[in-house]
């Protein structure tokens, strides 16, 4: 087992990792930018190293500083959390070259899933359902138009280096094609330095359902059931829940097996997530695979009683997993509390938290790094807390979530709490009746 883990991250996830390390008897090193000097991850780690100025690219993304911090503190592993360098193949390789275990995917695994068109080819070859479309990249707009006529509009073109919706265009008819092609290509070139595009049939109003998987160094893989992440705004998830309201034992068995096939096709080691789009007939299709711990992992922990960070560390240390698949018999939901003003287009609202009350009680978990008097810096992600509620049924979960949201007091800044309170009363949401398009016509003005 590792002796000391350096956590190459900040905020709630850095704290989350420190907590598990403490329970496992592993020493911890925090790294921090000058903007995070008074953060809780710095206080709760055994050691802390300042790695640079506020900007992420000069601190949490600065590989030489992170490696130097690990070397001077004698850390034998690095946990990257999510975001930052968690899916950076170069960083994974550089850690290995310095004899530091990267608690995450190998450079090969990251690369094989990072190029979306080739990831899709790999999955198709492994027997995982994929959305009908181009075989790999499109050579030209002409080729695209020919294919679109065959697969029938609407179609979607996506950047192979993309993710989070960038370099993506929905095309409803041939007369829109050339414009969409040109702007998607330019956007992909600018954002990723890679203008490669591929095409798919556009699935109208899908659900986003992802399967949590784990694979070990012995070729064993299992799934830990699903999370429904359809409640998103501009590709930012706001609420996640498990089980998915659309799930049945049969569908879970099929999606779970597909996710395990996906993991085994790339000999996946570690915990990961296979994302699927699900259409209104419950057909499901591979979308992307994430080779990191995700923000929404706690809801899976709540219903399976696994500590997913502990599983990551154990797998990285070469310990075998049980290999058992999980069917939950509890409900869990997460609301992301962001320092944003939902009535002003979710614009960031950094600043000082002047007064704070964190909710508690049965079935309530809050993963957060905030405290009364904490100053939220403007340089990073605006998520400041995850409110995770667990109960025996979805109905009880919604009631408990609303109660916990009403108990949550964060003064001095704007947050997404009023949005979540309104959502818990929405009849369609309460009925489990929603797709990724749900928030497109949600009224955020009266919160
Ligand atoms: C799609 C799609 C419909 N049809 N692909 C959005 C981000 C990127 N990861 C893939 N995305 C989508 N791909 C086909 N063929 C709809 C989306 C999509 C979406 C997917 C998941 C969650 C929210 C979304 C919001 C808008 C569009």
Describe this structure in words.
- This protein is an alpha+beta fold.
- The protein has three domains: 100 residues, Rossmann fold (3-Layer(aba) Sandwich), CATH 3.40.50; 70 residues, ATP-grasp fold, A domain (Dna Ligase, domain 1); 235 residues, ATP-grasp fold, B domain (D-amino Acid Aminotransferase, Chain A, domain 1, 2-Layer Sandwich).
- The protein contains 14 helices and 22 strands.
- The strands form six sheets. The chain has an eight-stranded antiparallel sheet with strand order 13-12-9-10-11-14-21-19, with helices on both faces. Strands 3-2-1-4-5 form a five-stranded parallel sheet.
- Helix 4 packs antiparallel against helix 5 and helix 12 runs antiparallel to helix 13.
- The structure holds ligand MV4.
- The site of ligand MV4 has 16 residues, from strand 8 and strand 13.
């Amino acid at each position: 087992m590792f002796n000391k883990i350096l956590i190459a991250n900040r905020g709630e996830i850095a704290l989350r990792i420190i907590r598990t390390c403490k329970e496992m008897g592993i020493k911890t090193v925090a790294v921090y930018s000058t903007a995070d000097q008074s953060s809780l991850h710095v206080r709760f780690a055994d050691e802390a190293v300042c790695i640079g100025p506020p900007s992420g690219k000069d601190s949490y993304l600065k590989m030489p500083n992170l490696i130097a911090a690990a070397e001077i503190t004698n850390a034998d592993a690095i946990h990257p959390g999510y975001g930052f360098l968690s899916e950076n193949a170069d960083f994974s390789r550089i850690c290995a070259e310095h004899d530091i275990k990267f608690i995450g995917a190998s450079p090969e695994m990251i690369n094989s899933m990072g190029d979306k068109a080739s990831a899709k080819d790999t999955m198709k070859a492994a027997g995982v359902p994929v959305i009908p479309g181009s075989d790999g990249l499109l050579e030209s707009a002409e080729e695209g138009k020919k294919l679109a006529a065959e697969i029938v509009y609407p179609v979607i073109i996506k950047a192979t280096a993309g993710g989070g919706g960038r370099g993506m265009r929905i095309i409803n008819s041939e007369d829109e094609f050339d414009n969409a092609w040109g702007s998607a290509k330019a956007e992909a070139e600018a954002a990723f330095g890679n203008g490669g595009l591929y095409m798919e049939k556009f699935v109208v109003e899908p659900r986003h359902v992802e399967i949590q998987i784990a694979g070990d160094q012995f070729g064993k893989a299992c799934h830990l059931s699903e999370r429904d992440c359809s409640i998103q705004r501009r590709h930012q998830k706001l609420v996640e829940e498990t089980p998915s309201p659309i799930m049945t034992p049969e569908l879970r068995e099929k999606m779970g097996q597909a996710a395990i096939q996906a993991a085994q096709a790339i000999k996946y080691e570690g915990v990961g997530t296979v994302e699927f789009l699900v259409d209104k007939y419950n057909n499901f299709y591979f979308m992307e695979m994430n080779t990191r711990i995700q923000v929404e992992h706690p809801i899976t922990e709540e219903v399976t009683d696994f500590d997913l960070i502990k599983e990551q560390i154990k797998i990285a240390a070469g310990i075998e997993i049980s290999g058992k698949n999980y069917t939950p018999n509890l409900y869990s939901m997460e609301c992301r509390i962001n320092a944003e003003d939902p009535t002003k287009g979710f614009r960031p609202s950094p600043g000082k938290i002047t007064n704070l009350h964190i909710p508690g009680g049965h079935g309530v978990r809050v993963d957060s790094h905030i405290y009364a008097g904490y100053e939220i810096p403007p340089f990073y992600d605006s998520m400041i807390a995850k409110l995770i509620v667990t109960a025996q049924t979805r109905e009880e979960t919604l009631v408990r979530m609303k109660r916990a949201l009403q108990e949550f007091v964060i003064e001095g800044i704007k947050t997404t709490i009023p949005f979540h309170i309104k959502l818990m009363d929405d009849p369609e949401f309460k009925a489990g009746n929603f797709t990724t398009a749900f928030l497109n016509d949600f009224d955020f003005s009266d919160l």
